[in-house]
Specification:
Number of domains: 1
Shape: extended
Radius of gyration: 20 Å
Distance between the termini: 64 Å
Number of strands: 7
Helix content: 25-40%
Structural class: alpha+beta
């Protein structure tokens, strides 16, 4: 009886743990594929990325030597990389909040002498499976990196 109970317990443990490991493994493989694609596109732009972060829907990378930030959305069909010069950059995070829903949108506003742009980290309408606070922490991290 004891052996069968242990065996059943181990089987149940495996049945609950295996899907978690499978999901983590798939996510790592997807991130590796995205990283390879992004680095290849950046190399076509003659940029060697010092830092690259891939999120659930967007990516951010930086080339410190040329003072360039690259960013874009992860899109299987059409991966577009946008670039932004870091010389004289100002970086500000804007949050739209409501009492009923909490954080509705997180946007990072970038400005330098030549251009201005915005990076949307979170939009409640589009990102139903992404946690707003995690995106806010990511935006704050990149604000520190860029400042």
């Amino acid at each position: 009886m004891e052996r069968s109970s242990i065996l059943i317990g181990l089987l149940l443990l495996f049945a609950f743990i295996a899907p978690l490991f499978y999901t983590i493994n798939i996510k790592k493989k997807n991130n590796a594929i995205w990283e390879q694609k992004i680095r290849k596109k950046a190399a076509q732009m003659h940029l060697e990325l010092d830092e690259l972060e891939i999120n659930t829907k967007l990516f951010l990378g930086i080339n410190r030597a040329k003072q360039i930030l690259i960013y874009g959305n992860l899109d299987e069909e059409n991966l577009k990389i946008k670039s932004f010069g870091l010389t004289g950059i100002t970086c500000e995070i804007k949050q739209n909040r409501s009492k009923e829903k909490g954080i509705e949108q997180i946007v990072m506003l970038l400005k330098n002498q030549l251009q201005q742009s915005q990076i949307v980290f979170y939009n409640e309408k589009d990102d139903y499976n992404v946690e707003a606070l995690a995106q806010l922490e990511l935006a704050q991290k990149w604000q520190k990196v860029l400042s």
